[in-house]
Amino acid sequence: MGYYYGFDPTYILVIIGAVICMLASSNVNNTYRKYAKIRSRSGMTGAEAAARILAMSGIHDVSIQHISGDLTDHYDPSKKVLRLSDAVYDSHSVAAIGVAAHECGHAVQHQKGYLPLKLRSLLVPAANLGSKLGLPIVILGLILGIGFRLPNGDYFSLAMLGVWIFSLAVLFQIVTLPVEFNASRRALSMLRDYGMLSSDEIGDCRNVLTAAALTYVAAAASSVLQLLRLLMLSNRRRDRD
Predict the structure, then answer these.
(1) With 0-12 CB in 10 A as exposed, 13-18 as middle and 19+ as buried, what is 38?
(2) How does 48-66 read in b/e, with b if 16+ C-beta sit within 10 Å?
């Protein structure tokens, strides 16, 4: 009955996804702020920790750059550049070292030819296409009701085409999960094996990286919920036609 009162029940899926993402974002920010107050016993900054990890991992062709923003850290495999944010580059905290080590984990993945990282890199153009065009095409298809019957009698609409395009962005989010979790595992192992942090400090880093990983889980879950909503809307239009 919700449709008849101007409320689309599928919006509930969008709301759930938004709430999940907000909770994950709040959690990672609070967790990082907590451990950003704890200075590492080594006294290393995030940039120094990254340089040491890369050197001890036998990686000498990756540069480290300082970028603006908080927690905008990332590794660019196309340019072999590890970029550390204001909150990490010059910080001596356990949290900063953990984040820097995580980005080094991506560099190690690249060096070793980690398959999920390769797949994610290949999916970047398709994911950009899906995130930019998928939803507009679905909306246009729902408004115009453009579609046609396939030889087997099934109905294929412009809206469904948009759903398929949007699914590329969802696939990217899903493939990102093993990449991020693996980078965190590598980071913790390197910090321990290279003797850069004590056991209790590594535990603190694990808390930071786990909170960060949950933001990717939340993003993937939100994308799946959005895809489910678009699929439901497309099927509803098809049933009408």
Answers:
(1) middle
(2) bbbbbbbeebebeebebee
Token readout for 208 is: 């930071």
What residue spans define the domains of the chain? 2-240
pLDDT at 20 over 90: yes
How far is Cα 107 from Cα 88, in angstroms, rounded to an integer? Answer: 17
Choice among 48, 103, 180, 201 that is catalytic: 103
Question: Does residue 103 carry a catalytic annotation?
Answer: yes
Q: Is the pLDDT of residue 241 over 70?
A: no
Predicted TM-score (pTM) above 0.90: no
pLDDT of residue 142: 83
Reported as a single tens digit per residue, the pLDDT across 85-115 is 999 999 999 999 999 999 999 999 999 999 9
